[in-house]
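ok here's CRAL-TRIO domain-containing protein:
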Amino acid sequence: MYQLTEKTDNVHYEDDEILKRKAIDEFTKFIQEHPYIKFNGETDELSVLAFLRARKYVIPRSKELYERACLFVKQNPEICILDEEKYTKILDLYDTGAITVMKERDALGRRIILCATKKFDTSKYTLDDTMRLFNLILCVLSFEEDTQKNGTIFINDLNGLSLSHLKLFPYKMLANYSSYMNISVVKIKEIYVVGMPSIAVQLFKAIRYVLDDKNRSRLQVMSDLGNLWQFVDQSKMSTDYGGKSFTDMETLYDFKSIIISNKKRIFELSKKFIINTKNKY
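and the structure:
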């Protein structure tokens, strides 16, 4: 039976407009006056808040996150910077249901992200396509104020995983995976891995090894979906996973409409930051 876990985040800045405004102004000034990272265009207050909320308004940690995120974009443009061709392909991948976002939030206001391995066609899509889609989804979620505050939970359903899927994950990508988990402004509160076959054990150990202590502590392995529903409210899932309210198709296209409505903002965001490599970076 699903049991609600206690909500622990209680950031007093959210309730004090004076403190919040002071933090926003300080961080905005930091972005605009950064000696190595040039910001093109106006600063978006919601984007500023995303960095602040991700580190519970601890300004030095928020600044570090900002610098790491900008550096990751520079080092991984093939994943982070989209053009029309990449955008079209990852929307096609999204339509397969390989990675979806549930229509309803859980009782703590968290978005539920589901990765269904069996729906991923390895003959058509690559690891970069997967990373682009995951990056796109987290980017869109970062535009949602409730998601900034409450975070997400991530379910990786490995039922149907085969050797062709494992070949997509060269070990050299593990460092990037770990880095990505640490630079996302969207808080992933819990990570569930379900139905892991024996052929994936070594890869899982490698992934777990490269995660930092915080993300490692959030990771739980479930033998089957029945065990998962002790921790995740099944009623919030699509009907394919036992939910009652929304079909898989309704769930899929609800979030797709959100992606499409944010297309311009997504394209602009990754091009706003220019790092001067002749200096510190």
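+1. The two ends are 50 Å apart (CA to CA).
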